[in-house]
């Protein structure tokens, strides 16, 4: 398990975007795990995670001040994603419109709410949730498996990790190869 915390600038408190492009490839034998997470002080968040070997994308661009318009949106795609084969994910967001692509299967949807900007703290994580003390973050498992070709907007996260421009925020083993899982057989 390794969680990467990415910081975008030191002066800004938030990262406010109208458009986002997030891409990655993963493989695992685990049915649960957070692949990507970002959240903001105003309640905005984006989380990509595996639950029961399906891919869940959870987003919130904010709710209105009266609580009459709720911004949370959750979309599920795929199944049997714990098969230890490479799976490709692409998230393209423009305002409230989303294209979620899993292994070349595109799902289009519109995010609930009335806001178009995603306001995140300038830190996002890949491979797990940051410890925030919130009950929701403690119940989610960190991703165990392999990830490659990680892109967040114009930032090549994989390349940044290789050049040691990132520091892990939670311990684990980082290698730039993918080890086959131990199946428990003795090979006799």
TrEMBL record:
Gene3D superfamilies: 2.60.120.200
Highest taxon listed in the record's lineage: Eukaryota
Domain Laminin G as annotated: residue spans: 1-178
InterPro entries linked to this entry: ConA-like_dom_sf (IPR013320), Laminin_G (IPR001791), Neurexin-related_CASP (IPR050372)
The name this protein goes by in its record: Contactin-associated protein-like 2
Originating species: Crotalus adamanteus (Eastern diamondback rattlesnake)
Native organism taxonomy: Eukaryota, Metazoa, Chordata, Craniata, Vertebrata
């Amino acid at each position: 398990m390794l969680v990467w915390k990415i910081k975008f600038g030191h002066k800004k408190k938030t990262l406010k975007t109208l458009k986002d492009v997030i891409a990655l490839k993963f493989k695992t034998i685990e049915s649960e795990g957070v692949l990507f997470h970002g959240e903001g002080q105003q309640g905005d968040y984006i989380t990509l995670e595996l639950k029961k070997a399906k891919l869940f994308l959870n987003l919130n661009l904010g709710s209105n001040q009266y609580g009459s318009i709720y911004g949370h949106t959750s979309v599920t795609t795929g199944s049997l994603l714990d098969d230890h084969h490479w799976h490709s994910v692409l998230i393209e967001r423009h305002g409230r419109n989303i294209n979620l692509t899993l292994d070349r299967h595109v799902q289009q949807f519109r995010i609930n709410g009335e806001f178009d900007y995603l306001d995140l703290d300038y830190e996002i994580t890949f491979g797990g949730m940051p410890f925030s003390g919130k009950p929701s973050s403690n119940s989610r498992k960190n991703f165990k498996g392999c990830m490659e070709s990680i892109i967040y907007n114009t930032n090549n996260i994989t390349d940044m990790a290789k050049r040691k421009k990132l520091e892990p925020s939670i311990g684990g083993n980082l290698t730039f190869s993918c080890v086959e899982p131990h199946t428990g057989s003795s090979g006799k």
